Amino acid sequence: MGFTPWIAVEDLLPGQQWKDEIRRQIKAAGAILIILSSKSIVKPGYFQIEISYALDVAQEQLEGDIFVIPIRLDDCQVPARLNDLQWVDLFSEAAYSKISNSLNARALEIAERHPQGQGDSYGPKKGMRIDSMPYGSSEEFGQESLEGQYLVQGINPDGSLHKGIATIKGIDDSGNVFTIISTIENDVFRYVGRLRKNILHAEGEGHQIVYFLQWDGSMSAHWGASGLDRLIPMAAPVGKDRHRHGEGPK
User: 119's torsion region: left (phi>0), alpha (psi -120 to 50) or beta?
Assistant: First the structure.
């Protein structure tokens, strides 16, 4: 997905005080993915302590921040202490796009508070990219559901932030070909994109950008070596509900 996880069984070094190191990594993490299964939720031990500590650190975040993300491996019961958090089912069709969306949103939250050159940099590292993976629902999106204006929020490959406006408009009767005009600060970028299921591949001016349509009407995108964008619809098209059918809030 373009993110580098810290996993205890893979990243702990021989000789490290593993309990202290796990707590240090939880404290330093930008986000915590808690993997739940029918076996893990009933097993006493340090895993339960890790959940408690992650929730303690979550209390230090700003209200509304994404920090702890519960992920179910199977149809298990979510522990009561995680019940207030929206979880995702890894066995559902849209799981990977939803996790990627959450992590991208969290990266933007952090980057806005730690601009490049001021303290720690939480932007994408050099060479980081979002690799190919399953993306959400296979629902076909028609022309009317994409046309409109979007607020663009993103992270450049150097870790700096950008904002702007994107306008998307269909250019043929198939409903699968679109022009995308993005105005980012003083620069204007023009692309032509082709839609296949919920992935919009766009090219223009020597650049490529890939947009992944999400169930809520927003889009996530990656470009270049490590550029990330999120497109948020500014208004629903007349007579069209931008919200998609699919897994929504509990």
Answer: left
Which helix or strand (DSSP H or E) is residue 88 part of? strand 88-89
- How many other CB atoms sit within 10 Å of the CB of residue 79? 15
Domains present along the chain, CATH in parentheses: 8-113 (3.40.50.10140), 143-233 (2.40.128.120)
What H or E segment, with its residue span, contains residue 229? strand 227-233
Interatomic CA distance for residues 62 and 66, integer angstroms: 9
DSSP element (H, E) containing 105 = helix 95-113
Task: Please give the DSSP secondary-structure letter assigned to residue 154.
Answer: E
Instruction: Please tell me the distance from the alpha carbon of residue 242 to that of residue 22, in angstroms, as a whole number.
Output: 42
With CA atoms as reference, report the closest residue to 123 among 136, 106, 140. Answer: 106
pLDDT in tens, 86-120: 999 988 877 887 888 788 778 777 776 655 444 34
